[in-house]
Design brief:
DNA_Partitioning_ATPase; six-stranded parallel β-sheet; binds adenosine-5'-diphosphate; 11 helices; alpha/beta; 254 residues; Rossmann fold; AAA_dom; Chromosome partitioning protein; binds magnesium ion
Length: 254
């Protein structure tokens, strides 16, 4: 069993898309995978076909009301993965959980119960480093950081990783960086290649070989409530996420 958190304090970098496709990809490789949507926007849940009116019970139910996770796991319409939905109730998690003892470890406790049922638990985080992502980092064995290959975005990656390190040190946590994945790459822009070269210089083998290009089939799939593996299995998006799934599993199995 291993838990993987998708983190980046920047929004729109492909966290949710990578979380849903790794989870779906793992299931397609015969692994038992659980996806936990920790974002109040619930993009992961919605992009796997859940209805906005039907997001409860969600992970918020477990975090706030000590309801067992087993009771909130469902199979979304668009994938065979097991899912715990996110919901708008996560919006004020910082305030609601602030006074709790061990507030950074609530998610870890909540997920313990289902550890033995899954090979992989994937945590999709909101774009911040506030209490919910901190809970995700603490609950995880591995971190995967999606980045967009834009010069300005790259500058932020180093400082974000430093912040994550200091959070871990403070809490005494041991989640390790599994890798940085370049997503939404557009090679028509000259700066893309340069940005990727810069990333590889700075972070070396931490960067996954697979680069996920911008592909309209990927964004279409989420609006149809499913993954690109279902929506457009022969697309470059499906091929890239298939390759990334294999690469992630290789690193995990080492
Ligand atoms: N490879 C891709 N090609 C095209 N669109 C993508 C790709 N990856 C993500 N997107 C789209 O970009 C937007 C942001 O991606 P998302 O995964 O939600 O980022 P985050 O979770 O980091 O905010 C979404 O609308 C998504 O559908
Ligand atoms: Mg997201």
């Amino acid at each position: 069993m291993g838990r993987i958190a998708l983190i980046n304090n920047k929004g729109g970098v492909g966290k949710t898309t990578t979380a849903t496709h790794l989870a779906d990809g793992f299931v397609r490789e015969g692994r038992d995978a659980l996806l936990v949507d920790l974002d109040a926007q619930a993009s992961a849940s919605l992009s796997l076909g859940c209805e906005r009116e039907d997001l409860e019970p969600s992970i918020a139910t477990c975090l706030y009301e000590e309801i067992s996770v087993e009771k909130v796991i469902r199979t979304p319409p668009g994938s065979d993965v097991d899912l715990i939905t996110g919901s708008a109730r996560l919006q004020n998690a910082d305030v609601r959980l602030a006074g709790e003892l061990g507030r950074e470890r609530i998610l870890q406790e909540v997920l313990k119960e289902v550890d033995s049922q899954y090979d992989h638990v994937i945590l999709d985080c909101p774009p911040s480093l506030s209490l919910i992502p901190i809970n995700a980092i603490v609950a995880s064995d591995w971190l995967v950081v999606p980045v967009e290959p834009h010069y300005l975005a790259l500058e932020g990656v180093g400082s974000m990783l430093d912040t994550v390190e200091s959070i871990k040190k403070e809490i005494g946590d041991s989640a390790r960086l599994l890798g940085i994945v370049v997503t939404r790459a557009d090679f028509r822009a000259k700066a893309t290649k340069q940005a990727i070269e810069m990333l590889r210089r700075e972070h070396g083998d931490t960067i996954f070989d697979t680069v996920v290009r911008g592909n309209v089939r990927v964004s279409e799939a989420s609006s149809y409530g499913t993954t690109v593996f279902n929506h457009s299995p022969n697309s470059t998006g499906a091929e890239a996420y298939h390759k990334l799934t294999k690469e992630v599993l290789n690193r995990l199995d080492q």
